[in-house]
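REVIEWER CHECKLIST
Item 1: Sequence provided? yes
Item 2: Single chain? yes
Item 3: Sequence as submitted:
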Amino acid sequence: MNKSEKKKFKEIIKQGKWNYVLTYGSRYAILMFLSMWFFGKFILEEEFYVGLNMVIWGIAGLIIGLWGWSNVNKKINEK
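Item 4: Structure as written out by the authors:
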């Protein structure tokens, strides 16, 4: 890892775990929610359950955000 990458990861860590999880996890959740809405509504022409899908993709976004946070910490701790 070069110095610029290490500096970038240290800046991310400074912002905090939950800021990272909310920022990157919510991006994933929103993208997947909209993709599934489009796919279900227009391609499959089936009923789309907004509440259920918000919960599902919200949990998935949280998991992806936490997974990404652990990867950032692994990268910064590598020698």
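Item 5: Key structural point noted by reviewer: The chain is about 85% helix and 0% strand.
Item 6: Recommendation: ____
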